[in-house]
Design goal:
Elements (H helix, E strand, L loop, with lengths): L8 E10 L2 E11 L4 E5 L6 H8 L7 E6 L2 E2 L5 H6 L2 E4 L11 H5 L14 H15 L15 H14 L4 E5 L7 H16 L3 E5 L3 H7 L2 E6 L2 E7 L5 H10 L7 E2 L12
Parallel strand pairs: 3-8, 3-9, 6-7, 7-8
Antiparallel strand pairs: 1-2, 1-4, 4-5, 9-10, 10-11
């Protein structure tokens, strides 16, 4: 008999209110090694707030977070990094005026024994980690402002995994990218999956979600409507979950699922 899989991340009954507004209400979600879990919903659905709780940007009112089955205290972004969690925001938060290596080590620069910046060591490590993600990347000396959207994503992802992150949060990674660059980012995500990294993917693009995700979690009004394997639901069913809060047969309903009316008189 096989032992049950232990989630890489388990968030249970997470709640957070701002005044009288329940931004997140009893939300539960899991992520496994080498899995992409898409988190979708309208603006204000609670998905970004839930992920900010995981990344340490916000503190939950109640609920628990565990990493590989162990209770985790995440009160700030430093705690999240200690747990192996890195967030890649839509803006990427890159320093445009410096090159890839400088961005990877920003705030964590390597130094020689004389206390000077070890530019050679930082560039060598940058070439190694970016090269594994994107073998076609060559513009190591250029400021990142000169890079394409897909190349900038390579730098942002490399910065996240350089210090052994095993859990990535990706916020709209293909927003404003063309088809070729979107495909490039998709390839980056598949390589991360192959390395066993778990990814929370926040996206409004249903096509991207169905191309990249293994499972999907739909939120509405701060609550989880339902979760499902991508193979078990259609795009129309997911849209119905987002708009109406209805949960199709292939999904596991959450507290936010609309209850079907009873047929009894």
């Amino acid at each position: 008999m096989n032992a049950p899989r232990i989630p890489l991340v388990a968030m249970r009954d997470i709640s957070l209110s701002f005044g009288g507004l329940h931004a997140v209400d009893r939300a539960s979600i899991e992520l496994y090694d080498g899995e992409v879990m898409a988190l979708v919903g309208h603006n204000g659905a609670g998905k970004s707030t839930l992920i900010k709780i995981l990344s340490g940007a916000l503190r939950r009112d109640s609920g628990t977070i565990s990493i590989r089955g162990q209770a985790a205290t995440i009160a700030n972004p430093r705690d999240a990094r200690t747990c192996g969690i890195e967030t890649i925001y839509q803006t990427l938060a890159l320093a445009d005026n410096v090159d890839a290596a400088a961005n990877l080590f920003l705030g964590r620069e390597l130094r020689t024994r004389w206390g000077t910046l070890d530019d050679a060591a930082m560039e060598a490590q940058a070439r190694d980690v970016i090269g594994r993600l994107n073998p076609h990347f060559q513009r190591f000396k250029d400021p990142v402002s000169a890079l394409s959207g897909g190349q900038r994503q390579s730098v942002a992802i490399a910065r996240a995994i350089l210090f052994d992150a095993r859990i990535l949060v990706m916020d709209e990674p293909t927003a404003a990218l063309g088809p070729q660059e979107t495909a490039q980012v998709g390839e980056l995500i598949r390589k991360l999956k192959a390395d066993g990294i778990g990814i929370f993917l926040i996206s409004h693009d249903i096509h991207d979600v169905f191309d990249l995700a293994d499972r999907i979690c739909v939120m509405k009004n701060g609550r989880v409507v339902g979760t499902a394997r991508i193979a078990d639901v259609t795009k129309d069913e997911v849209l119905s979950m987002i708009i109406l809060g209805s949960c199709p047969p292939g999904a596991t309903p959450g507290p936010g699922a609309v209850k079907k009316p009873s047929l009894r008189a």
